[in-house]
Amino acid sequence: MHPALSVIFFSTLSGTGYGLWFWFGASLLGHDRDFGIRDYVTLAMGALFVTAGLLSSTLHLGRRERAWRAFSQWRSSWLSREGILAVLCYLPALALVFFPQHGAVQKILAAMLMTLSMGTVVCTVMIYRCLKTVPAWRHATVVPIYLMSSIYTGGLWLASIYAIWTFAPVLAIFAMLILWLMTRYWRNNDLPLAVSRSSALGLPQERSVRVFEHPHTEANYITREMVHVLARKHSAVFRECCRGFGFALPLIACLGAWTLNLPWLYSVAAVSGMLGVFIGRWLFFAEAKHVVSLYY
Prior knowledge:
The protein is mostly helical and 296 residues long. It has a single domain, classed as Formate dehydrogenase/DMSO reductase domain (Formate dehydrogenase/DMSO reductase fold, Up-down Bundle), CATH 1.20.1630. It contains 10 helices and no strands. Helix 3 packs antiparallel against helix 4. It is globular and about 70 Å long. The two termini are 13 Å apart. The mean pLDDT is 85.
């Protein structure tokens, strides 16, 4: 499918912001402490990532003035649920600013922030996971990849803000798990579509079916958005870039920050990790095959 940069920016930026808020909430639950300047920076940076991502997602809308109507379809639409949870996430994040002292209220707000953040990420990925017309997105690894990528990139930024030396092994574990899941997903993508022209017509698989005449004489919306072909050689290059920038370089930088006492390397790891996830999200769309491509 055609990779829309606005949607890729949205999922990468907002996912990082929600991951950062998740780790921040976890740190409040795990320790009784009052806020310092870095805590306010973490809340603000998470809000910056989330807001930038949400704003970038509106660039893909045809009629932006009607975007508010999506909130009314929460019973059936994952997009609507995502929008509602995204708005609700701001409430505990903003409320925590007014409860800098540790206590029961702070922990309740932290738990709400963690739950709503991960709930929003789940709704985001379910928008794609529920589409039966794109078989690749139905794979079992899609939801864990989105969730763990959010936690991973958010953790990289948390480490860069607080310079948490002992956090490097935790990030390494997440990186290896995500790489394993993405490798499984890519191997599944390399397989031919389980649906064919023959099966679509109810014919035996061995029966050959070909298009007698092209459906259109020129490009249209369907061919632009749904029938995007990425060459295998380009796909291999982008996958290696995703592995290198997203996981290898961040882990090397985290290891250097941990062993050489150079906290600025955590920021290098955070930026590189986001770039790798961005490339992975681009591949998520560019490699996906819509079943309508069988017709075209």
